[in-house]
Amino acid sequence: MTGHEAPPARSPPTRSSIRLLCGAELDAVEPDLAEDMYRIVAEAIHNVVKHAEATSVTIRLGVRDHTLTASVQDDGRGLAASGGRGPGPEGEDSRTTGPAWGHGYGLTTMRERAERWGGTMRIRYGKSGAAVWVVIPLPVRVPESPPADSESRSAPTAVPLRETADPARSGS
Hints:
By secondary structure, this protein is an alpha+beta fold. It is built from 5 helices and 8 strands; from the N terminus they run βαββαβαβββαβα.
């Protein structure tokens, strides 16, 4: 040993832009589901940084019509071009099943997290990048019981809400 240490390895500088678009009502998502969605999106971003050589990434999160959605889209080189086994011809949609998914623990975990909540994950690849979409249905909240007396029917009142049974969690 000569007493000299090699300089620490550095990643080449990149010029990437990240665009984050968040819709309303995200604060109404239950904490465990929010954490799973966060981890799905984080893994998708990690995959873009590690494999895509993208210059632009757009992340969208939102709740609409009792559905939580997230998408991560990049302008990189796609999974097949980065050494992974792509799902088929350019632009083909793919669910996270089948032999194309044997190459990554991260993609499998993303799919499992979405399915845990009764949701789905899709990926689309092309020459101009890739996109990951996650769609998870949210439980619908319904009133426990209507107001009992006629006086309260004429004036607006608060009615306690309860969640409906979630078939994805009950195993039915």
